[in-house]
Design a protein that fits this description.
single chain; alpha/beta; Rossmann fold; seven-stranded parallel sheet; 9 strands; globular
């Protein structure tokens, strides 16, 4: 596969999620991309020379398939609707994540970067998480040149409520003797940076980034770019 720096097109669903909003900023600033296609159910709320904003309706995805063309597809949607629409195995192929992934393949998009959660798995106690796990398995069977699945735990940002949640999670983990360390919160910005960084690697096939992997990446980002206080 030929990757030409500065000439790539990124596709982003959804710029309003916790990770998506950071992803958008990083993609617009990144020298590898000359165009960033944003697909959102909301109206355009910003301008940038690299940015092309495409508004769509959840139930009318067919109308935007022709615009779904590029190099790297970033799936950052975290809508409650996406989680609840998959009620059984038969509904997976009609879900929005699968339909977008399938359309991307038909349009020769080579890389799919998919945001999931560490809570998603076949052993999950919630049925909705088990079905989400089935979705991941089916997506893994799709022949993308590269498929990256990111499975963070609780996502936090710089808001007071997120900091409160982070402190609570740390106290619970300390009380339990560290058995919940893999569920320690990770900053949304760090996950976004991991997604954009991995899209620049020549890494063919399936790559899954666990909570531990993302925590390690987050710590490395903090070391490289310490925050000003």
């Amino acid at each position: 596969m030929e990757i030409i720096k500065g000439q790539k097109t990124a596709i982003l669903f959804d710029p309003h999620s916790k990770v998506g909003r950071y992803c958008l900023d990083l993609l617009l600033d990144h020298e590898a991309y000359e165009l960033v296609l944003v697909f959102s159910e909301m109206k355009k709320n910003r301008r940038h020379p690299k940015l092309k904003w495409i508004q769509y309706h959840y139930d009318k995805l067919d109308q935007i398939i022709e615009y779904l063309k590029g190099d790297d597809l970033f799936w950052c949607r975290s809508s409650f609707k996406d989680w609840t629409e998959i009620t059984d195995t038969s509904s997976i192929r009609t879900s929005l994540p699968f339909k977008v992934a399938w359309a991307a393949l038909q349009n020769d998009i080579s890389q799919f970067l998919f945001l999931s959660s560490t809570m998603v798995g076949s052993q999950s106690w919630l049925p909705v998480l088990k079905q989400r796990s089935e979705l991941e398995k089916i997506i893994q069977e799709l022949p993308f040149w590269a498929l990256h699945i990111f499975k963070p735990p609780i996502l936090i940002d710089h808001s007071p409520s997120s900091r409160w949640g982070e402190n609570l999670a740390k106290k619970i983990s300390d009380f339990a003797g560290g058995i919940f360390d893999n569920y320690r919160p990770v900053e949304s910005e760090a996950v976004a940076r991991a997604m954009v960084d991995q899209a620049q690697q020549i890494k063919k096939g399936l790559s899954i980034y666990s909570s531990e992997d993302l925590q390690r990446m987050a710590e490395a980002y903090i070391t490289k770019t310490p925050r000003k206080i």
